[in-house]
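Handout, section 4.2: multi-component inputs.
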Amino acid sequence: MKSDLDFLMHANQIDAILATGPGDHNPPMVYLTGGGSLTNADVLKLRGQAPVLFHSDIERDEAARTGLRTVNLASYPLGELMKAANGDFLGSMVLRYQRMFEEAGLSRGRVALYGRMEAGAALAIFSGLQKAMPGLSFVSELGSTVLMQAMATKDEAEVARIRRMGQITTQVVGRVADFLTSQRAKDGVLVQADGQLLTIGEVKKRINLWLAEAGAENPEGTIFAIGYDAAVPHSSGAASDLLRLGQTIIFDIFPCESGGGYFYDFTRTWCLGYAPDEALGLYEDVLHVFQTIKYELQVGAPTRQYMQLACQLFEERGHLTTCSNPQTQEGFVHGLGHGVGLNIHERPMFSQLASEAERLQPGLVMTVEPGLYYPKRQMGVRLEDTIWVRPDGQVETLAEYPLDFVLPIKN
Amino acid sequence: MKSDLDFLMHANQIDAILATGPGDHNPPMVYLTGGGSLTNADVLKLRGQAPVLFHSDIERDEAARTGLRTVNLASYPLGELMKAANGDFLGSMVLRYQRMFEEAGLSRGRVALYGRMEAGAALAIFSGLQKAMPGLSFVSELGSTVLMQAMATKDEAEVARIRRMGQITTQVVGRVADFLTSQRAKDGVLVQADGQLLTIGEVKKRINLWLAEAGAENPEGTIFAIGYDAAVPHSSGAASDLLRLGQTIIFDIFPCESGGGYFYDFTRTWCLGYAPDEALGLYEDVLHVFQTIKYELQVGAPTRQYMQLACQLFEERGHLTTCSNPQTQEGFVHGLGHGVGLNIHERPMFSQLASEAERLQPGLVMTVEPGLYYPKRQMGVRLEDTIWVRPDGQVETLAEYPLDFVLPIKN
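Output:
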């Protein structure tokens, strides 16, 4: 939780956090500033101190609105920095960070570095800064960084925002279901009122529109995939595909607040008109695992235990899984879930890769998303809810939605 | 232009380009892959060779759709890499890049590094790779990199996409103008048909909706700012502000293709109902500079010459400018324009910071956007079109739109 940040910095021997990059669609910046339309900025937080926002002169009002202590970068005139760096732009950027750090009283210690940047610029600037300030060391652990540890558990205000995204998400899913069931079928495919064949592209256009209407964005896209594409977990669905009856459709929707705030993550699998027995069998297997896992979740248990349970349940029903066949492209081929917050994928991991130390704890918001994939049979099924582990230890689904598999279609 | 890439790599002594990060909303990746919904991938291009796309196993179909040569990262099993790196995740990532580079025959030379990444991860992985492969050096120039030089000039296919975004942009601007002029004024502010006061937030919601309807996104937001906010160039406008008659409204809209493709950039300034003389004076000054600059643009001239001309024209009319007063927050306080493409801001620069070598040349797509800002008077004016320098050297505005200042409002 954000309030744990100083404690986590202490526990990990981090003396300062530097977050950099755009103010939107950049989780570390959004987390530390609360959001705000800054083109590019830096936040420097020393352990035990409030964060300080460094902003460009023309964004002084946007910066002030964050409520953070601010420093106008006009107080480091570029001309002067360029002169001091003998006309080298990279050198002038390094020098600016050096002055920012020195004025904050930070000339030695461990600095954790965050935020969205061009990879080449990050390497150039911060390896330059490392040379210029040998007393500093940049913390280079990937994965479970201090900020990600803090972000993994959400406070009530964060949960309220995720819950609101859940309501928007399920409302849009409901509109899509209503839209599909209001179409007619002809020769096994959906046909619009004007006689045009309905395509995945048309459905996705409506999803984008309805999300925008509700004030949400889907910067990572939406998966609405039928047939073979549903059988490959990350296929987002081909725009020209038709909506054929009796084929599995995976609808995985993961929008965020406008400007790149909190996400929600949700999946249902549908068959239009009717479900072939084989698809129904897969659906029942996934539903069984989905409901069993949700029922079994308990504070204190390692997350990977549930991945193992999901694999075991699928294997008992005759499916391959990555637990026993890491290379399999059939059966249960991905992790059971992941944390959700300002990142669509964040801590905790819910897979075999999770360490023993990753355990269910109050404040976590995460997905439960078992699935089965059979590319050769052109079938895929996945069910996903986003759950919250409440302060009292109870597990709550943040947005309820029916688990119907077949959507009835008129002929 | 993309076809110049090998030549530019040669001229800059670059042996390879590595682009990394998400496949969407990540200009270097979109440029090299043509787009595609990849969660995370790498593109390695050796000089004189076609680019190779490294993708995760579950995104093999999305990867194949790019038409590039592909390598499935499943051929570098994580378990094996982790073992070789003694269980260190960072080490395993470094090792994977090392193997990718070595198998591509790249063990020495200069590598230019691109793509959106977490700053800390970029520093950790690529400084680790630098140590593991001392024969490689990562090119660290900021600003005018090889890829940015290539991207600055657009081929006809790219211009067609930007032009289409221009049409969408001006259509949405027209809808906003129609919407505003269809409202009634009461006590000096716009009132909706249902009697509710119209707010900036309501206008922005419609802008987002109409952009989504047209298949566009605005990942960087939209500036629709009135009064004091219009007088501060980067204020995006407060959602709760009312639409008061006689105040300057800056409407700066810069959407991109869905998924993070090509941008368009466009600004008009409006006064609802009437314009006070002082605002009209500012508008005429900006219009004069805007039209003069557009008329004067000539292939071969250094871009900064136009910045100087804009400053001179504004100063002749009694305004302060950053040319002679770098710190001023009144008058003409920003650059005259910038390149537009997969980035909303790219090469060339159109300001005093541009080098003598940055010249107008065929293929450039860039903005012309003079403006005047008077925070104390709560007035700001900016006009902006996106122009293309055609292969024949003629300058063309990619989307025409009227230059009316006052939008008539019924009482």
